[in-house]
Write a structure and sequence with these properties.
The chain is mostly helical. The protein starts with a helix and ends in a 33-residue tail after the last helix. Keywords: Cytoplasmic vesicle, Exocytosis. Interacts with EXOC2, EXOC4 and EXOC5; may be part of the exocyst. Belongs to the SEC6 family.
């Protein structure tokens, strides 16, 4: 019973387990006793006893803390194994707990299949999710333990899930494919499909955010599939049509059907489907964009066909006008929710331009065909035994200008219904075709003139038809400016105006050729002794001119004035040509006086005739006859150089040969005077002023024979 303290320590289990502790305790006690002895032997150190107590207390606390930490680390090393065993036990317990469910999986598969066949989709989906969750939990545990072989066994056991998922998905996509009908007839089925899709989408999102292991088949992405099926349904329902009739009626019916169906279906989406899906689906915007993009692709597909001009026009009008109108995407039942303005254009600007150019080419071919037909009909009319028709004022005309301008104007106006750019393209094409038509008309006129020269009796009313051509040309010239789309800018292009001028010039030339043919037999009698003695030759000429003037009165005034002026120039030219080419030399002063008198009478008679036709004396080329007469009537030949200078100044196209011939006609001009006159002309060369109408340059006179001269000798 009287065991000592040392015996107690020796018997302590802790001492046996911790021998170092016993040694440390002995050392500590010895140090403490040694220190205490010193204190008691030295009383002055008793004052620091309190400080020592605090320091030792702190040291003791520090030692205890380190001891506790060491003991705890030691204990945790043994507990880790206990925790691991506990976790394995819990896992085993959970597996044991779900064993009944695992054994009943195939039975659940059968039940799910029955539910799917009965279209009890929500119930089937709930059970399907439970089985998937069971499989995924098992796979997750196996994944954590790294048991890949066991995972393959589990997947094989749950392989029926894949078929069930596919069966459910097929029913869902069938429902989505019929969604536009179902939301009107049976919205519950459609809503059920959407609810299932949203459940799966939430599971996908959760797994992607939190799970360290993605089960097979995840993510399903059924919401994205929903959009795809819906878009495929829209596209396949309307935009995979068979080959269209390229002639126009088939395309018109197709576009009309598209217009009606799209408006109707978008109204269903806006009014019914929107209520059956979550707001974040943006189902109306998705469907609108789908219709828009599918239409855009469909129009491109149609444009690959060889459409005629009607088909191209229909497509342009539909895409650029009808599509955005209140009849379609701007329909009151769709606004304001449906808005395609933020989407890309239905047809790109490049495609629009390309299609417009194709349309222009088709219209051009049609216009060419119509114009050629009009031209053929026009010249058939020439050979009828009737005069051309007249307007209410009695001017000759034909239907040609009205037909041509109506055709061009209608095409330009029709194009204005599409775009300004198309209208401008058609306008440019119209001017080009009109210019080409005038060229063909002129060629036909030339050919007809050649045939008429061979037999002047055919066509019977040749002159009348030429006058109708001039009136038609004037009508075309006046109407061309009205074709321009911009009323503020109606200038006729230079090339077209040149074509109109060439047409007028050719018709005028052919008329003057007719006048010339009737005047030539009379001009051949100039000059002659009979004419000089006072024949009615010029009177006969005036009768011919007056007859033609009456015909010319059947054209409108601008052209009539031109014809009178050109006729006067022709008469003056032929009169002067006869005098200069078949020169008559005066043998005496009396003959010169007689010639001057005849020239005065003839020029006066002809001038008065043309004055009566509205041509002022100052505008007449017959003034040259009066001037020429003055040269012949001059009594003093020595003054001829001054008179000739004035003459060539007024008529700068007169040549040395012309003057020499006039001097010959006088019959009294010496070689010296002739030399002076010709030398004066050489010293005063004349330039043709702008706007001058040549008179003498077209008159060729015989070149006088030069005297034969020996070298270094006098001329014979």
């Amino acid at each position: 019973m009287g065991m000592s303290a040392g015996d107690e320590r020796a018997a302590s289990p802790r001492d046996e387990e911790w021998p170092e502790a016993e040694k440390a305790e002995k050392l500590a006690r010895g140090a403490a006793l040694k220190w205490a002895s010193g204190v008691f032997y030295r009383p002055e150190k008793l004052e620091g006893l309190g400080h020592y107590r605090r320091r030792e207390t702190q040291r003791n606390n520090s030692i205890q803390s380190r001891l506790k930490s060491t003991v705890q680390s030691y204990l945790e090393g043994g507990l880790q194994q206990m925790r691991k065993l506990m976790e394995e036990h819990v896992q085993l317990a959970s597996v044991v707990q779900v064993l009944p469910q695992i054994f009943s999986v195939h039975e659940v598969f059968s039940h799910i299949l029955q539910l799917l066949h009965g279209q009890h989709l929500l119930e089937a989906h709930v059970e399907l999710m439970m089985v998937e969750q069971l499989r995924d939990d098992i796979l997750s545990q196996l994944h954590l333990r790294g048991l890949s072989g066991a995972q393959a066994t589990v997947l094989s056991y749950f392989s029926g899930l894949q078929d069930l998922n596919e069966s459910l998905a097929k029913q869902l996509w069938d429902i989505v494919g019929s969604s536009l009908r179902l939301v009107r007839e049976d919205p519950v089925l459609f809503v059920t499909a959407v609810r299932i899709i949203e459940r799966e989408e939430k599971i996908d999102d959760t797994l992607l955010l939190e799970a360290t292991f993605l089960p097979p088949g995840r993510p399903k992405g059924w919401r994205q599939k929903f959009y795809q099926v819906l878009q495929d349904t829209i596209t396949g329902g309307h935009f995979r049509a068979p080959r269209l009739d390229a002639e126009g009626p088939g395309l018109a019916k197709h576009l009309a059907a598209l217009q009606k169906d799209i408006v109707c279906e978008l109204c269903v989406v806006k009014d019914l489907m929107v209520q059956c899906v979550p707001a974040h689906y943006n189902i109306l915007s998705v469907c609108t964009a789908t219709y828009h993009q599918a239409l855009s692709s469909h129009l491109q597909e149609i444009l690959r066909e060889d459409l005629d001009k009607q088909g191209l026009f229909l497509l342009l009008e539909w895409a650029l006008r009808v599509y955005h109108s209140p009849e379609m995407m701007g329909h009151p039942d769709l606004l304001p929710e449906v808005d395609v303005s933020a989407l890309d254009p239905l047809m790109s600007s490049e495609l629009v331009d390309q299609t417009e150019r194709r349309y222009v080419m088709k219209v051009k071919a049609s216009v060419f065909e119509w114009m050629q037909r009009t031209l053929d009909v026009e010249f058939k009319e020439w050979f009828r035994e009737e005069e051309p028709e007249t307007d209410h004022e009695g001017f000759f005309q034909s239907a040609l200008p009205a037909i041509v301008m109506q055709m061009l104007n209608e095409n330009i106006q029709v194009a204005s219904l599409i775009t300004d750019s198309l209208q401008q393209k058609i306008y440019n094409m119209a001017l080009e075709e009109l210019e080409a038509f005038l060229g063909r008309l002129r060629e036909a006129l030339v050919q007809c003139g050649k045939e008429h020269q061979q037999d002047r009796a055919v066509p019977k009313y040749y002159i009348s038809h030429l006058l109708a051509v001039l009136n038609n040309n004037l009508a075309l010239s006046n109407a061309v400016s009205s074709l321009h789309p911009d009323t503020a800018s109606r200038e006729v292009p230079g090339s077209l105006q040149a074509a109109l001028d060439r047409m007028q010039k050719k018709a005028t030339q052919l008329l003057l050729e007719e006048l010339l043919l009737d005047l030539q037999p009379l001009c051949l009698q100039l000059p002659s002794r009979k004419w000089l003695s006072g024949s009615q030759l010029v009177g006969s000429m005036c009768e011919v001119i007056d007859k033609y003037a009456k015909d010319f009165s059947r054209v409108r005034k601008p052209v009539f004035t031109l014809l009178v002026a050109e006729s006067e120039l022709l008469v003056a030219n032929q009169y002067l040509r006869a005098l200069l080419q078949r020169k008559m030399v005066c043998k005496s002063r009396e003959e010169r006086g007689q010639l001057c008198h005849r020239l005065l009478q003839d020029a006066t008679q002809l001038q008065e005739l043309f004055c009566g036709l509205g041509l002022d004396r100052g505008q007449q080329s017959l003034e040259a006859v009066f001037a020429l007469r003055e040269l012949i009537c001059l009594k003093d030949p020595a003054l001829l150089s001054l008179e000739v200078l004035g003459f060539v100044t007024k008529y700068p196209d007169v040549s040395d040969e012309h003057i020499s011939t006039l001097l010959d006609i006088r019959g009294d001009v010496s070689k010296e005077v002739r030399h002076v006159v010709l030398e004066m002309m050489a010293q005063h060369p004349q330039a043709l002023p702008e706007g001058y109408r040549p008179i003498f340059s077209t008159i060729l006179v015989p070149v006088p024979e030069l005297p034969f001269c020996l070298r270094k000798g006098k001329c014979a």
